[in-house]
Amino acid sequence: MSPSKEIKxxxxxxxxxxxxxxxxxxxxxxxDLTNSMSDGVIVFQGRRFTPSFEKRETPEGNIIEHxxxxxxxxxxxxxxxxGEAKKxxxxxxxxxxxxxxxxxxxxxxxxxxxxxGERVDMHDVVLLVHQSRAPAICDFYQxxxxxxxxxxxxxxxxxxxxxSDERQPYLHFEKRFGNLSDAVLGERLRLxxxxxMQVLVNEYSTVKxxxxxxxxxxxxxxxxxxxxxxxxxxxxxxxxxxxxxxxEINLTIDDLVEELSEGFSFHSLSPDHPERQPKVPTKDWCRxxxxxxxxxxxxRWNDVDLRDNITILFTKLDxxxxxxxxxxxxxxxxxxxxSLF
Length: 341
Fold this sequence. Notes:
Layout: H1 5-29, E1 30-31, E2 36-37, E3 42-44, E4 71-74, E5 81-86, H2 96-104, E6 124-130, H3 134-146, E7 156-164, E8 170-178, H4 183-191, E9 193-196, H5 197-204, H6 216-233, E10 247-252, H7 253-264, H8 283-295, E11 299-301, E12 309-314, H9 320-332
Parallel strand pairs: 5-6, 6-7
Antiparallel strand pairs: 1-2, 3-4, 4-5, 7-8, 8-9, 10-12, 11-12
Helix pairs in contact: 6-8, 6-9, 8-9
């Protein structure tokens, strides 16, 4: 039993996006001169910002309560950044304009920065795309700029990323368009920087979730390996447990969300600034993953109507991800994206 290529590709996309985000943030966090993390750099993911009065309304007259960049950096003038990371784009080129307009919503005097007054004088806007998409996306952006459909006031740049699984895997970043306010970093990235994956794994291995819903098999695997297994291992029966035996693990959805948010989301990178930060994963995501376990006979709801309290029937699995891919394959269909290129 092994995950289908389609499921594996979507999980790889999700994980690669996480590493693209942390890899880019690390350029701001890490000080090459001291070989340590810089003081005063705050990084965040999925933070909710309030638009300015000028941009709080859509052309249709709807009020925009907040915008949520994929990632951000708060440090000092010239080193404040908001951005999006997108490994996949729709096949239909005309749909790309919506992604650019989303980025344009960050080109604003936003409120919500993790500082006194919650505002900064200036920040950069960044788009991270997979290397294979970068030329087409850059061309499309410049076409839209020429016809006046898109125009940024703040510094805007496009960077490519690509994971190479050679003998020593690395993640390569390269600037493809535009400029950063931090000219030194911008020049480094213009020439291209390859970051060893081991460096990112050592520093960011606990970050397994961001504010986009992951494929259900992946989320179920994270729940099983990082919440269920540690609890089961505390049971005296764990070491000698055979394949037919089970250990009952009682969990609430609130506890599940809290534990995953605290230990396996971007919260761990900026725990002192929780304001405006949504909980990741959400209760709904966790309930969907748990529903799949219940359907497979691996768990039972203790309150079927509310689905707030669950008993997991732990048993040892040879390959957790393969097993969850099979368990979640029907429920996961509804989460799939449009056909991508």
